[in-house]
UniProtKB/TrEMBL annotation:
Name assigned to this protein: DUF1329 domain-containing protein
Source domain of life: Bacteria
Length: 416
């Protein structure tokens, strides 16, 4: 690739005014900077009384949160640090993808792809979107996560879940895929509260939805049996979110893009959630984070970064509860970190924020917490808060055996 780009396709150089730094090309330096993040202090704080001053670098969703919660919602702004690194083999695969990878099925699938970023120098909105859909999240990982739905003036409860993911797409020694492959295996098992503990979900997510639909199974504790689910996707409500989040909002957007027309609004410079190490460390006291209306903002961190803005408009004769959506993708990791969802009258309805951090052991970027705000009900749903001060997540450079993600074994593992 061009020497002016990082190994993932981002602009290597920072901004002319110095607010956005150059990418840290030395991994040893990046790892050291990550270790020091908890010693940083905010440059300033954006709140309900001064957000207009910074509105040029805010999304409509962030402005809506300031206006809806003027006394409590804040964004602590820190010095930007671009620490994202990936394994060497992934860099090499990304270089191959630059000349080999192609869209198929009107942009709803990809082919000739190596195990890297599919389109490091994208030419259209769907290529940008596919970089997010296949963003590097390790070969295999497992951890314990917490989710909760917070309603105004109502009690809430925590759902704790053991999660395992594996991405065959990122098997380092594989040949380029020209037809289809399992993109992700996703297995969850609820450990608390007791009334639903043992319930489990298994998902096999296809890289090319037109060639093979997503397959899903659940283990029902009360019935003590594994059941194949009908298609799980699009605007199917998420069971644990009180209908605040739908299935295709995992990772802020996932699954087939086929129900929308997509366009790129180019690169923007925005304050986005970033380097959320302190938030991860704060999960030892999760209840203190779950304040009314939104997460406790004190341990959150926002930085000025370049993002890709994508806009999706629902196609005629297609159905989805969201008529329009916007995604804001971090240029370094290609992960969507902010999403905005609009209703059928084109009113802003929901705003989602993804807090992530660089993980040196991976290496790469992994989510700390995804927060989904419903502006009408003033409720929010938080998912993926990592337990044990953000430490209990294990990465592996090997894929588990296929039998590990077999629906036949789902009941056995759920009742151990």
């Amino acid at each position: 690739m061009d020497d002016s780009l990082t190994p993932t396709g981002a602009i290597l150089q920072g901004s002319d005014d110095g607010q956005i730094p150059d990418w840290v090309s030395d991994k040893t330096v990046a790892d050291e900077l990550h270790q020091q993040l908890d010693k940083d202090t905010p440059l300033f704080v954006i709140n309900g009384s001064n957000y207009q001053k910074y509105q040029a670098h805010l999304t409509a969703g962030q402005v809506a949160l300031f206006e809806l919660y003027p006394e409590t919602f804040e964004m602590p702004i820190y010095q930007s640090k671009r620490l994202h690194h990936i394994p060497q083999w992934l860099e090499e695969a990304t270089r191959k993808n630059q000349k080999d990878a192609e869209l198929i099925d009107d942009g709803n699938g990809i082919t000739n792809v190596w195990p890297g970023v599919p389109f490091p120098t994208p030419e259209n909105a769907l290529e940008i979107l596919w970089n997010h859909l296949i963003a590097w999240r390790s070969i295999s990982a497992k951890g314990t996560f917490v989710e909760a739905t917070i309603h105004p003036e109502q009690r809430h409860y925590l759902i704790k879940t053991e999660v395992e993911i594996a991405m065959p797409y990122y098997q380092p020694d594989r040949v380029p895929v020209t037809d289809n492959i399992i993109l992700t295996y996703y297995l969850t098992r609820i450990t608390s509260p007791a009334r639903i503990a043992g319930g489990a979900t298994l998902v096999h997510d296809s890289m090319n939805p037109k060639m093979g639909q997503r397959q899903s199974w659940i283990y029902n504790v009360s019935q003590r049996r594994v059941r194949r689910l009908p298609f799980l996707g699009y605007d199917t409500p998420n069971m644990n979110s009180d209908d605040i989040r739908v299935v295709d909002e995992v990772n802020l957007f996932n699954g087939s893009p086929d129900r929308y027309n997509w366009k790129s609004n180019g690169r923007k410079t925005l304050y986005i959630p970033y380097n959320s190490k302190v938030l991860a460390q704060s999960t030892s006291d999760i209840e203190s984070l779950l304040t009314p209306y939104h997460l406790n903002t004190a341990p959150t961190r926002y930085e000025l970064h370049r993002v890709w803005e994508l806009e999706a408009t629902l196609k005629e004769k297609q159905h989805h509860i969201y008529a329009r959506r916007k995604l804001y993708l971090d240029e370094d990791s290609w992960m969507a970190l902010i999403a905005e969802q609009y209703d059928q009258s084109d009113a802003l309805w929901r705003v989602s924020l993804s807090h992530t951090q660089y993980m040196p052991d991976m290496p790469g970027v992994m989510k700390v917490a995804d927060v989904f705000h419903d502006l009408n009900s003033k409720s929010y749903y938080v998912q993926s808060l990592i337990e044990d001060n953000g430490r209990w997540i294990e990465f592996s450079n090997k894929l588990p055996e296929k039998s590990h993600f077999n629906p036949v074994s789902l009941k056995r593992r759920s009742t151990r």
